[in-house]
Amino acid sequence: MKDNHSSLVVLSFTLLLGLLANNSPFVSAYDPSPLQDFCVAIDEPKNAVFVNGKFCKDPNLVVADDFSFSGLNTPRNTGNKVGSNVTLLNVDRIPGLNTLGISLARIDYAPNGGLNPPHTHPRATEILVVVEGTLYVGFVTSNPNRLISKVLYPGDVFVFPIGLIHFQMNIAKTNAVAFAGLSSQNPGVITIANALFGPKPPINPDVLTRAFQLDKNVVGYLQKQFGGS
To answer: Which residues, other chains included, contact 78 with Cβ-Cβ below 8 Å and sequence gap of 6+?
Structure first.
């Protein structure tokens, strides 16, 4: 009788776990696990299989160049308005990344305020390591919004959780360089200022005026700056 009771308890607990799992509101947003060694992305659909938005190259035709990229050691031009340059190596640059759920970026920052402006990656968590310079970095939590920030030096690492607004700014008098790993083959990026003040067609100024509690002339000026009008 005791053994039967123990078995019934174990069975009930197992069923409870199953019900919780089936009714959980949690939804996974990560790239799916691959079911093959690799799926090198190609544009030509002939004799190919469509996986994760890309066609798979015939495995017998795969070469080392499908998995490599050269030149990430070369400094990038930061002579733009924000003073930064992001070199993203996603599935479009390294086709062998298809289905592997990872990508890499080099970020160059100009001295004295070079900024990777506030943005989000809708499909990836980012882990950043500083190679040169001194960066002020941070991200903002979901409501109620809280800023989590830190000053980083060469060799320091910082994590930006998936989907949260984050930024990096060079606060040194010299150039800065960082490398970032992202947990998606195609993480996507939404730059906040560009998305709000520069989309085409533009957002109605009345929406932005009320949302940001700004004068309509200020909103019009910002839309002109970002090409949204």
So the answer is: 84, 85, 108, 109, 110, 114, 175
